[in-house]
Amino acid sequence: MDNSIIQSSQIPDEQFPRDNGAGSLKDFIHLLHEIVPLLENVRNSIEESSHRIPKASKQLSKVTQETEDATVEILNVLEAMTARITSAETHLQRLKSIIQNSKDSAKRIAEKLLASSSETGGYSSAELTTLVVNEFIAGIDGSEAIPSIEDVLRKTREDSMNIAMALQVQDIASQQIASVAHTIESVEVQLVRALNRFENGSAGDIADDNADETPAPARAFDVDARYGGSEERQDIADEIVKQFSTNK
Amino acid sequence: MGKFLVVDDSLTMRRIVVNALKTQGIEDVIEAADGKDAVAKILSEGAQFVITDWNMPEMNGLELAKWLRTNPQYENIPILMVTTRGNKDDVIEAMKARVNNYIVKPFTPQGLKEKIDQILKTVELKSA
Question: Rounded distance, CA A173 to CA A162, Å?
Fold first, then answer.
């Protein structure tokens, strides 16, 4: 800023006789004297803000990156959990098969014992053996326990899937952050432009105001991206899809 | 059912969609990070079903749909748009670009299954 303007305000009053309009000039110079430091403050604020904005944008990018990293870690754990559930379900099926085979073979043994005993006419020991075998079959019957385990596994699988689906929030939040970051970057462009105007004068700058110098966003985003209320919007989408399908 | 191509610039979303497809027994899935990548994958590896996001760098989902529909080889390939864009005008624009169905994020595995089944049913009816 040109300090000569401030210095000229120090001119003594007697050099500005009131009858020739010099009083107004003096008021004007006094006004300038007050405005210049204010403008200087504004300029400093703009300069400081324009320096802070890239840092803010970087922080937002970092937040996005960190939440994506965390989400990937959660997905890794969920996928490992799902794989273990699948493995447990496979083992359970194998266990069911082993139990069924044991029951079948025990039944066959009982039948053979009974048949062989009837040939010789002695029933008592055969009947006793059959009783023992039947007790054995009842002992290995997992009809109550196995479905319960299957149910637990199924519910755990559903829960892990629901957690995975809820992680869609990361994509939606990152779009919201990208939208905010883009707005901040647009403000930065305007601030830098204002700063240039302060330093270089305003001539010719007004025409530049219409120029689109906003940088391209770091990632593609939907300004209206949101996590809640997708059911209502899905209903609207379904209705439109239906109309298009009917009109084909 | 053929090969599925999942197109999304978000790694998280790609994994979520791929996992949801696996629960439906769909294992033959390839991925692309944007429309341009998707075109390259379709040309090199082929695909019989496309699930695409809308907002992506380079080439967005709408542009990808338009590219597919103007290509005789892929003009009938099923396209399912899965996007955060849920405004009426967006859905109309997508349908005009001849996507087969539309899902607003966040979606559920059941919702995804329903839309895939609907599309496959329509495709079967057309080819029958």
Answer: 18
Residue-wise pLDDT tens digits, B87-116: 999 999 999 999 999 999 999 999 999 999
Among A79, A166, A171, whose Cβ lies nearest the Cβ of B13? A171
Q: What angle do CA B29, B34, B39 make, to 5 degrees?
A: 70
Burial category of B99 from C-beta neighbours within 10 Å (exposed 0-12, middle 13-18, buried 19 and up): buried
Burial A139-170 (b: 16+ CB within 10 A, else e): eeebeeeeeeeeeebeeebeebbeebbebbbb
Vertex B51 angle, CA B48 and B54, to 5°? 140
What is the residue range of B54's domain? 4-127
The values of phi and psi at residue B104, to 5°, are -95, 125
Output the pTM of the full model.
0.77
Q: Do A172 and B84 touch (CB under 8 A)?
A: yes
Q: Are A237 and B27 in contact (CB under 8 A)?
A: no
Give the whole-angstrom CA distance, residue A19 versus residue A12: 16
Non-local (6+) Cβ contacts of A26 within 8 A are A9, A11, A13, A16
**Contact yes or no for A240 and B19 at CB 8 A:** no
